């Protein structure tokens, strides 16, 4: 059991440490990051309840409905809502990259509990596959969410804050839908998921670089 728990938790913590240590301007308080991670764990329960209601009570139980509506849209909305309500307006959210840190922490909290439940049901023989695909994909969707939240919070006079917030919500949803649709493509999923994940990592790391670049520029423009 200890091995199974370790296999479930390790990928999420490793990815969280990676993105946290990339904060080269002003690292966030560990307590805030842990809090976001715990909130991510906690929202998994209302998400599962709502998914049950959508699929069983409302009858949206087709593969497409469960993959798009009850998985991608519901999960990303709840993660976005947690980051927006608990971190976005917090005083510690004081540079653009912070959005990525808090969004990744929340998403990985959710993904870690989801991973643990999956491994309990299916065993740790799928642990490597789970860490390479579902857990890392949650983190990468969150990079987009956090990047645009950071852009929204530190938007300039000629930039539309609401547009950035909409991007922070709907782009992770779109990426999650694409990810799920790939797995619905039967025998072709392996041919599609590898290039998709490579591109997702490349674009995610590019967003990390852009957030740092925007943060450095924003820091230079602050009054001394």
Describe the protein in words.
By secondary structure, the protein is mostly helical. It has helices at 2-21, 30-57, 63-88, 97-122, 127-153, 161-183, 189-220. Helix content is 81%, strand content 0%. Helix 2 runs antiparallel to helix 3 (63-88) and helix 3 (63-88) crosses helix 5 (127-153). The chain is globular. The chain has one domain (2-219).
Give the topology.
Elements: H1 2-21, H2 30-57, H3 63-88, H4 97-122, H5 127-153, H6 161-183, H7 189-220
Helix pairs in contact: 1-4, 1-5, 2-3, 2-4, 3-4, 3-5, 3-6, 4-5, 5-6, 5-7
Shape annotation = globular
Biggest β-sheet strands, sense, barrel: none
Class of secondary structure makeup = mainly alpha
Number of helices: 7
Helix content: over 70%
Approximate strand percentage: under 5%
Runs in which pLDDT lies below 50 for 5 or more consecutive residues are: none
Gyration radius, rounded: 17 Å
Number of strands: 0
On the 0 to 100 scale, the average pLDDT is 87
Succession of helices and strands: HHHHHHH
Query: What distance separates the N and C termini?
Result: 54 Å
- Count the domains: 1
Which descriptors apply to this entry?
224 residues, 7 helices, 81% helix, globular
Question: What is this entry, summarized?
Answer:
The protein has helices spanning 2-21, 30-57, 63-88, 97-122, 127-153, 161-183, 189-220. Helix content is 81%, strand content 0%.
């Amino acid at each position: 059991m200890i091995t199974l728990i370790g296999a479930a938790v390790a990928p999420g913590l490793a990815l969280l440490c990676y993105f946290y240590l990339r904060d080269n301007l002003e690292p966030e308080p560990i307590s805030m990051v842990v809090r976001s991670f715990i909130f991510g764990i906690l929202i998994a329960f209302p998400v599962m309840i709502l998914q049950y209601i959508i699929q069983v009570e409302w009858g949206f139980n087709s593969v497409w409905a469960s993959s798009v509506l009850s998985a991608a849209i519901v999960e990303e909305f709840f993660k976005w809502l947690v980051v927006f309500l608990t971190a976005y307006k917090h005083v510690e959210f004081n540079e653009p990259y912070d959005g990525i840190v808090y969004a990744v922490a929340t998403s990985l909290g959710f993904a870690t509990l989801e991973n643990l439940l999956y491994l309990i049901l299916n065993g740790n023989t799928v642990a490597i596959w789970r860490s390479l695909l579902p857990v890392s994909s949650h983190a990468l969707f969150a990079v987009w969410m956090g990047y645009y939240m950071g852009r929204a919070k530190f938007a300039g006079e000629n930039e539309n804050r609401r547009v950035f917030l909409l991007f922070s919500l709907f782009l992770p949803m779109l990426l999650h839908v694409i990810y799920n649709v790939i797995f619905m493509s039967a025998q072709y999923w392996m041919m599609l998921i590898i290039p998709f994940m490579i591109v997702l990592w490349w674009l995610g790391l590019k967003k990390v670089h852009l957030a740092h670049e925007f943060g450095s520029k924003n820091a230079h423009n602050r009054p001394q």
